[in-house]
């Protein structure tokens, strides 16, 4: 008796036929967009958050002066099966010391080509670019529940778990939020905002040296200060003397970067969410905790540089957050106000948010690439030193 064996296409082989190179917008744009669409399909019918990069795959790093995007090709057909993005910036590591730091984001590998070492190869090639351009450290951020990403970086690429900031998400409701009585909110010019931030975050980690470029970026909607109305007549910003109590923050819009959309929810969940939205619009005086319309494409406002001082600081910070919410309320299509702060930052306790939409820990992992001359002279390595401040400055360009 003879047995016929059906011919099958050979499975991709680890490390074979994979080429990593720099992204070419004219040649690769369509292939990258198709690969990322395949990555965004939720598994097992679970709800998923998908991103529309508005036809610009490199948008998430474009606003850094030094950035790159790499693609991984597989086989003779040069199919794009993976991408990774990276950038380099100069930031504080604490105590006003600056380091050249690389940031990795947007790592994607096509579902059909996972577990083949492509992700590791992309990371290694990006690290080579980082070293060549003088980066001393490189870090990445991921959801603390993303085991696949954590294992890739910590076990296979020798990264160290470093910091766990908190991601706080507040939906934009159909009603306005009260700012509170006796509170004035003023918009600061970029130069004054830069001065205040350099003072407030001098001892923090990850504060960018080019803060002035962030504040003047077209995506930054302004820097705002909240202070008691009774302090307003006495405060002269030209003197540099601050009010006894104040809070400041800046607002960054992702409207021109990308749009988000929730897909894969049940009809019941969709109906309940939309019903809460309708009721809130009909009866805004009830201040219902309505769910935003995240089932159509939306963008977010990212709050950065949040800082408060004085006994009234917490109340003033809440007022600023309500002000940002109301800005989003007036910007049709803004679905949420998002902030990310250090675990021990005092503002963490006063920023309004929904627990179900927020993350108590957003894991940052870091790796040392090059040695500095001052470390050879005895200064401690950043990886092994204790934070000099509870403050972490989260660069809005990182989101």
UniProtKB/TrEMBL annotation:
Any one Gene Ontology molecular-function term assigned to this protein's record: acyltransferase activity, transferring groups other than amino-acyl groups
InterPro entries: Acyl_CoA_acyltransferase, GNAT_dom, Plant_NAT
Name of the protein described by the UniProt record: N-acetyltransferase domain-containing protein
Source organism superkingdom: Eukaryota
Domain N-acetyltransferase: 18-230
Organism per entry: Gossypium darwinii (Darwin's cotton)
SUPFAM superfamilies to which the protein is assigned, alphabetical: Acyl-CoA N-acyltransferases (Nat)
């Amino acid at each position: 008796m003879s047995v016929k064996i059906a011919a099958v296409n050979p499975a991709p082989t680890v490390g074979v036929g994979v080429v990593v190179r720099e992204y070419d917008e004219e040649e690769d744009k369509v292939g990258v967009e198709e690969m990322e669409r395949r990555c965004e399909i939720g598994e097992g019918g679970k709800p998923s958050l998908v991103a529309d990069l508005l036809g610009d795959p490199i948008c998430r790093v474009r606003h850094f002066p030094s950035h790159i995007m790499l693609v991984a090709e597989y086989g003779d057909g040069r199919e794009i099966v993976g991408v990774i993005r990276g950038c380099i910036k100069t930031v504080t590591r604490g105590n006003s010391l600056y380091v050249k730091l690389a940031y990795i984001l947007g790592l994607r590998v096509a579902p059909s080509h996972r577990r083949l070492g492509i992700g590791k190869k992309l990371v290694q090639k990006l690290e080579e670019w980082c070293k060549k351009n003088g980066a001393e450290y490189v870090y990445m951020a991921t959801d603390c529940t993303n085991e696949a990403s954590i294992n890739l970086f910590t076990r296979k690429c020798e990264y160290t778990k470093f910091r766990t900031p908190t991601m706080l998400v507040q939906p934009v409701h159909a009603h306005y939020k009260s700012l509170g009585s006796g509170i004035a909110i003023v918009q600061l010019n970029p130069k004054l905002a830069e001065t205040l931030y350099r003072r407030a975050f001098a001892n923090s980690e990850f504060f960018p040296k080019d803060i002035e470029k962030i504040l003047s970026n077209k995506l930054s909607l302004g820097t705002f200060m909240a202070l008691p109305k009774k302090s307003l007549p006495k405060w002269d910003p030209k003197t540099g003397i601050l009010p006894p109590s104040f809070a400041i923050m800046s607002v960054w819009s992702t409207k021109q970067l990308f749009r988000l959309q929730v897909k894969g929810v049940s009809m019941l969940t969709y109906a309940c969410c939309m019903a809460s939205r309708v009721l809130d619009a009909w009866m805004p005086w009830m201040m219902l905790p309505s769910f935003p319309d995240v089932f159509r494409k939306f963008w977010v406002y990212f709050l950065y540089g949040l800082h408060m001082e004085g006994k009234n600081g917490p109340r003033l910070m809440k007022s600023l957050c309500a002000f940002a919410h109301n800005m989003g309320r007036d910007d049709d299509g803004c679905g949420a106000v998002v902030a990310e702060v250090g675990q021990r930052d005092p503002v963490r306790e006063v920023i309004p948010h929904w627990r179900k939409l927020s993350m108590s820990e957003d894991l940052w992992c870091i790796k040392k690439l090059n040695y500095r001359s001052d470390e050879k002279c005895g200064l401690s390595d950043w990886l092994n030193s204790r934070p000099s401040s509870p403050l972490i400055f989260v660069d809005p360009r990182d989101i």
